[in-house]
Design goal:
Number of strands: 8
Number of domains: 3
Largest sheet: 4 strands, mixed
Strand order of the largest sheet: 3-2-5-6
Order of helices and strands: HHEHHHHHHHHHHEEEHHHHHEEEEHHHH
Radius of gyration: 30 Å
Structural class: alpha+beta
Distance between the termini: 90 Å
Number of helices: 21
Shape: extended
Length: 518
């Protein structure tokens, strides 16, 4: 084969370490960013925190170079034209996020929002505790005060045990049962397994007299545990949990029936099969209705009021509030790290570099500068994307989810000159506090549904309509998915029954048969 020379012209994207770090910081949540900053502060001596008494890197806005002149520091109204903040051009610089437009980055993992196949977590709707009233008329405000004070379920139960007159052996078994509770207040393990562990710890031979004594002691300890407050704690299943709470009510035919249903026919009640319930219990429709009301008033998760509320608190990255006739869109200063380059170490490294010193110091200094710049660039990009979203969804901030417009990632990407994957990273695990509540940025994106008028309706607005229809339905004759589809069609929105079912499940709304009440 004869050797030849060839000239080829090609383009490729080089992922520099700085660009890789910029991409990684952009997709981190607020908590992950805080952890990343703490780790970098420990590893790089050139990186420092703005010195202020009692301050942490995440308490106040950045004040010193090179992270000053923040666009979030100005609380000026957003006029709705989508203008990027001053200094935001750095997000599109040669070393910045503009390089992320290349197709080499692939498809974002959650772009299913764009084609209408979004997941069930579109708006963070979850089960929330329901306020209930106990038999003596006291509400659960005391429970919420305990939760706010940070008292755990185990601590609350141990305090009650401390006031009980028990032998050391009985107390030890009861505390072992408390340690075996899960977060909802149920026994996480069967009582037999707990007994076996106690036998192992105390060196008791299975089948011996000592084992029988321990068995009886465990049964007594379980009854003591189930007598503690909150009612229902220590149950082994839902039926037992409901029965423990129902026993606190005054004796009545409705309570007797409710106990019977909780212990034997809970599945029929869940299916709303009232005819079969009346047939099996020989009870009248009115008595079944009263028993159902007693069961519904019970707390299925007695440990829920003691859950750590702080672990579920969402700290917004962006704050939107009304300002005059417009909307002010600013970054939340509480999530912005206050970083700077240590001047003393930087001068020392510069002096050593001039004297042919250690080149590793210069590399660490450059690494610190990159990190500070990339953190600033992350917040600049989040602010730009948030302002573009607010401009597109202005009606939402006045009228709520029912006024949401169709929006896909590509529209924001084209407007800001960024790649769709960049928008996906920005809107994932980033939250916006609005007059309507706090939402993930992904929430403002929804697929488009056709209307009779030839326009488009957002899937988010359709979900809000479905929620409104269900809230106003007759509890005795709940709306089926087909009926909801017909009602939407009357509103000029074409939605198939299967789509209605998908949206209903995403809203955590039970089927019509399970929503029916007497």
């Amino acid at each position: 084969m004869k050797p030849t020379l060839q000239v080829r012209l090609s383009q490729h994207l080089a992922l520099t370490p700085q660009l890789q770090q910029s991409i990684r910081l952009l997709q981190l949540s607020t908590l992950e960013l805080h952890q990343e900053v703490e780790q970098m502060l420990e590893q790089n001596p050139f990186l420092d925190v703005e010195e202020e008494e009692g301050a942490s890197p995440f308490e106040t806005p950045l004040e010193r170079a090179p992270m000053d002149a923040r666009p979030a520091d100005r609380d000026e109204p957003f006029d709705g034209r989508g203008e990027p903040a001053e200094g935001a051009d750095s997000a599109g610089g040669a070393d910045g996020l503009a390089e992320m437009r290349a197709e080499d980055f692939g498809t974002p993992g959650r772009d299913d929002w764009e084609n209408g196949t979004e997941g069930d977590d579109f708006d963070g709707i979850g089960e929330t505790p329901r306020s209930r009233t106990t038999a003596d008329g006291d509400d659960d405000s005391e429970m919420h005060e305990r939760r706010g004070a940070g008292t755990t379920l185990a601590e609350h139960l141990r305090r009650q045990v401390a006031a009980m007159r028990l032998t050391p052996e009985d107390r030890a078994v009861l505390l072992a049962l408390i340690d075996s509770l899960d977060g909802d207040g149920y026994l996480a393990d069967p009582l037999e397994e707990i007994e076996a562990r106690l036998q192992q710890i105390e060196g008791v031979e299975p089948g011996s007299d000592a084992a029988d004594v321990l068995h009886d002691r465990a049964r007594c300890a379980l009854r003591w545990l189930q007598s503690l407050e909150p009612a229902g704690v220590g149950a082994r299943d839902l039926g037992e949990c409901l029965a423990l709470q129902l026993r606190h009510h005054a004796k009545s035919p409705a309570r007797t029936l409710a106990l019977r249903i909780a212990q034997n026919y809970l599945e029929l009640l869940a299916k709303r099969d009232f005819r079969r319930l009346m047939s099996l219990t020989s009870a009248s429709e009115e008595l079944v209705r009263q028993a159902q009301a007693l069961i519904v008033a019970c707390e299925p998760k007695p440990g829920r009021p003691f859950a750590d509320a702080e672990s579920n608190v969402i700290v917004p990255d962006v704050v939107v509030r009304k300002s005059g006739r417009g909307l002010a869109v600013t970054l939340n200063p509480d999530v912005m790290p206050r970083l700077r380059i240590n001047d003393l170490y930087a001068q020392a490294a510069k002096a050593q570099r001039g004297a042919n010193g250690n080149p590793g110091l210069s590399a660490r200094l450059q690494e610190a500068r990159w990190f500070v710049k990339n953190v600033q660039q992350r917040f600049d990009t989040i602010l730009r994307v948030s302002r573009a979203i607010v401009e597109r969804q202005r009606a939402f901030f006045t009228h709520g989810a029912i006024a949401m417009k169709p929006l896909v990632l590509r529209e924001i990407a084209d407007e800001l000159g960024l790649h769709e994957s960049t928008i996906s990273r920005v809107t994932t695990a980033k939250y916006m506090a609005t007059p309507q509540g706090t939402f993930e940025l992904k929430y403002f994106f929804g697929s488009s549904l056709n209307t009779d008028a030839g326009g488009n309706a957002s899937s988010t607005a359709v979900r809000a309509l479905i929620q409104r229809f269900v809230a106003a339905e007759d509890a005795g004759k709940p709306l089926s998915d087909s009926q909801i589809s017909q009602m939407l069609e009357e509103q000029g929105i074409q939605v198939a029954r299967r789509t209605v079912a998908k949206y209903r499940e995403a809203l955590k709304i039970a089927p019509a048969a399970m929503r029916k009440t007497l």
